[in-house]
Amino acid sequence: MSYCINPNCSKREQNLDVGEYCQTCGTKLLIHDRYRLIKPLRQLTPTFPTEIFEVEDTREGGVKVIKILKPDEESLQLLKWFEQEKDILTNLEYSGIPKVEKDGYFKVYLSNSQKLHCLVMEKIEGQNLEEWIQHNGVISEETAIDWLQQITVILDKVHQQDFFHRDIKPSNIMMKLAQYPYDRPKNSDTEVTTISNAKVVLIDFGTARKLTQTVIEGKTITTVISSGYTAPEQLVGRAVPQSDFYALGRTFIHLLTGIHPNKLPINNSNHQLIWREKASQISKPLADLIDRLMMEAPNQRPKDTKAILQSLEKIRSTINHPKLANYNQWLIVGLATSSIILCVPFLSQYISMRNQKILCFKDVTVPQEIFTVGGSTTWASLRNLVHPAINQTFSKFQLQYRKPGADQGPPGSTTGIQMLLNGRLNIVESSRAFLKTENKQAEEFSLAQERVAIDGVAVAVHHSLNIPGLTLGQLKDIYGGKISNWNEVGGHNLAIKRFAHHSKEWFQDDVLGKEQKFSNDTIFFEETTQGLRQLAQTPGGIYYASASLVVNQCRIRPLPIGRTPGKFIAPYKKPLIPLGSCSEKNKNQVNLEVFKNQEYPLTRDLFVIYKNYPNEDNIQEKAGKAYIQLLLTDQGQKLIEKAQFLPIKTSDRTCVSP
């Protein structure tokens, strides 16, 4: 269907894709002889001065975004902001800012002589950080430094042109994610963007301001307010470039704590937010920088973007630690006896782990160092619970998540194992066991692993598709390409769109089998949230991921799965909450019981993989074993259950944290 651009049209969406004129009001549907409106990207609200649509570019192909200033809102101030956004986006060519072509700004005249001001720009595939934090929780220190550096570089480009943004907040920062293209070659190793190495983009320059119009001329300007983020001087119409820094600091407090700045307490003596205890995952130097960004007076904040970037480089050098591969060399000479003595608690505790139930993290003996952890994206929700709890318990045993570098491939179990083999990680969190071929790559050590939890894999479809479920055989034939229409499995006549996660070893082995490969038209996503978002927008779509990430989504339908026809088992607690009733406080819940009794057919083990040195005392091996012990404590297993995975041990006891 095509939308009519006329905001006064009563039936804007009821037009065929091939139509030339709106069937209701007669407005031309091919805008500027080039663009066709596909769908609104935010709710069409009469009181809002602008509308934003996704459009098809019929001349160059592809999808873009059009921003429209409505005719009844053509005030002088709004028109100035609109044209100013056009000037900024046209002149600033940088990957962190949406691109606008030279002819991207034009006017559309309606039949009643009213005119619409239109701006066509690059469509940023991804989600804004306000949406991201709602679905994924708080960010790590490594991610915070990476994103803060990226946004500061963007602001540097903007400020160099004598502009400043004036409306920085999580909803105006997009995470730019890429996916495998539709014509991706089979077995391609093409690298795509992930959340861990995503590029951020600053959007909505409609309220940006020219520096010479304010600071140099000394004028008071129109106030732009985003509650909780806007700097004090901007509230009274005296915004300066450092006002962007204040909003940037407030934005990162939200991302690091998960709490809107307005909901945090304020220190009455210095008017600073009290937030650090809510962001225990970050170091003091980074917290200090964020507080400096939000100082009450602009001259107390960093002088410019270069000062912020210099501070970030110093913080990076402070928290980066060298590889621990040679850590044990100093133990070899002169300390052999003490090394053996120190090793005894680790070995005895680990060997007896299966027969003893250690209650709390504090009861585990751990090596005193910082260790890097990475691997499967399935572990994300569990990682966000376990790592902070461990790091809070031990002052000198710390876990740091490390994302893959550009030369290491996308995040996942396979990449994590390779990083372990290459000395880039100390511990791997994996959603599969390591392969014999991987173990053969190890030199001077072997791979070791321990199962710590069980994950159910949920299959989901668009919420409008109403089928009772799928058998394992039907699921295999769908992804293998043998079933291509939903009417073949009891649905209506609709082509199937196959979506899958890029980390496909488990699904290949346990569902498709060795003899069957993924259909060539399968679209692979590196990030589960991206796949789920695409599924919610695709009526014929199908996707699978960890039940902990799928079942509680409101805009899709998790499917019951069965080994035989008619005997379907749901991964959620019945009854299914439909789209109309599903909300943040009323969501579907994972049914761990059907994973436990093995009624549900799609489950997999979660492993911790580490290096085993059979002939020497090695701190990396100790760290791997200690992490396993921590996860197998009652405290660890309860966190696993809280993350909606099935713990492999149960206990009625409760750990009282120190």
Q: What brief labels describe this structure?
A:
658 residues; alpha+beta; Phosphorylase Kinase, domain 1; Transferase(Phosphotransferase), domain 1; D-Maltodextrin-Binding Protein, domain 2; ten-stranded mixed β-sheet; six-stranded antiparallel β-sheet; 19 helices; 30% helix; globular
Give a brief description:
This protein is an alpha+beta fold.
Coarse morphology: globular
Distance between the ends? 60 Å
Count of alpha/pi helices = 19
Largest sheet: 10 strands, mixed
Just give the CATH class of the largest domain.
Answer: Mainly Alpha
Alpha carbon gyration radius: 27 Å
Plain-language structure description:
Helix 3 packs antiparallel against helix 5 (241-257), helix 5 (241-257) crosses helix 6 (284-293) and helix 9 (336-351) runs parallel beside helix 18. The termini are far apart. 41% of the residues are buried. The longest helix has 20 residues, at 141-160. It is built from 19 helices and 23 strands. The protein has 4 domains: 30-122, Phosphorylase Kinase, domain 1 (2-Layer Sandwich), CATH 3.30.200.20; 126-319, Transferase(Phosphotransferase), domain 1, CATH 1.10.510.10; 331-452 and 608-647, D-Maltodextrin-Binding Protein, domain 2 (3-Layer(aba) Sandwich); 455-604, Periplasmic binding protein-like II (D-Maltodextrin-Binding Protein, domain 2, 3-Layer(aba) Sandwich). The strands form 5 sheets. Strands 12, 13, 14, 15, 17, 18, 19, 20, 22 and 23 form a 10-stranded mixed sheet that branches. Strands 1-2-3-4-6-5 form a 6-stranded antiparallel sheet, with helices on one face. With 658 residues, it is an alpha+beta fold.
